[in-house]
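Internal tracking record. Fields below are filled automatically when a chain is submitted to the structure queue. Please do not edit lines marked as system-generated. If the sequence contains nonstandard residues, flag them in the REMARKS field before resubmitting.
Queue: standard
Priority: normal
Entity type: single polypeptide chain
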Amino acid sequence: MKIGRLFPDLLTTLGRASSPETGFARALKQLVTLSRATAGGLSFVPGRGEPLLFTAGTRRGSSLDAWLRARLGEAGRGMRLGPVDAPPPGWRGRPPVLLRASLGKHAAPLGQFLLLGGRGPGGLRADRIPSEFPRELGLAMEQIWRLHQRTLRLEVINEVTALMATSLPLERIYQTVADAVGRLIRFDALGLTLLDRERREIRVLDVAARTTLSEVYDLRTPIGDTLTEWVAEHRAPRRVDDISDPTVPAVGRELLSRRGFRSAILAPLISEGEVIGTLNAKRQEPRAFTDGDVEILMDVAHPLASAIEHSRLHAEIVQRAEELAALNRTGQLITARLDLGSLLETISRSVTSLRLRDRPPQR
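SYSTEM-GENERATED OUTPUT FOLLOWS
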């Protein structure tokens, strides 16, 4: 039997919510009401991401809420109704029973839902839940989640692409990218590695961190035996599932391990056909990233490389304009035939100003 025939409002709730999380929470609340349960819980696992947990029929932070969340952490397959050996804290009324059902396909469940109610007539019964309902609910949740992720992905790419038309400083560009990527990929640190081909070295810096790290990271090191060297040579992304992998270059492994990272993604930053660096996402847990995460980082890396080059060129143009303005002021003073002392003082100020500005452009 189809879920839409027996629970028509559930699909409507899922489809009309402003976000998947809002839809999942509202659908659970309706399910508790339709099944005549007292409370319920729902977990949904998006790929290899962290489970999303929801409860209904109880106040968040209450002892019952904690009890339901603890039960959601227990494994379960299929659909089963059984008595609760130890009633939840504060439970009153008839002896409680718990219905547990896995979501989606039996071989690869997407999560589970729980319904808690009283035993006996008028209470919670398994026959109120069609046998196909958990499977179809899970597949519907997965479809909505994927649609939302695709929409969010396009929004993020558009945000990063728009940076190409701005003259924002690189620090602002990096922060905007980190905020955007953080809506799609869970990371402990997001950073960049920028190549200096003339000096055969790289600049490694973190632009955002989602965890407590020992220090602000910004260093220069030779490019040899690094993951960035591999990415530049192959012009392809590199995913590290665990730094214990013997194929990880020694220096690349050391750079990750010194800050406690176990897994990473490096996506090449390519501008005008040349690899200028990498965009890096890092986690402290092994096997933390998926192929989908690699695709997202690659989508972001393409416009980011152009934005970096645009910002660098803009900085160079501003610097050259200031140099020309300084030379023009000096020329006007010479033409005006000022006294030698004033002329030398003005030239000295202009030269000092140019020397302070004449630094390698930040990439």
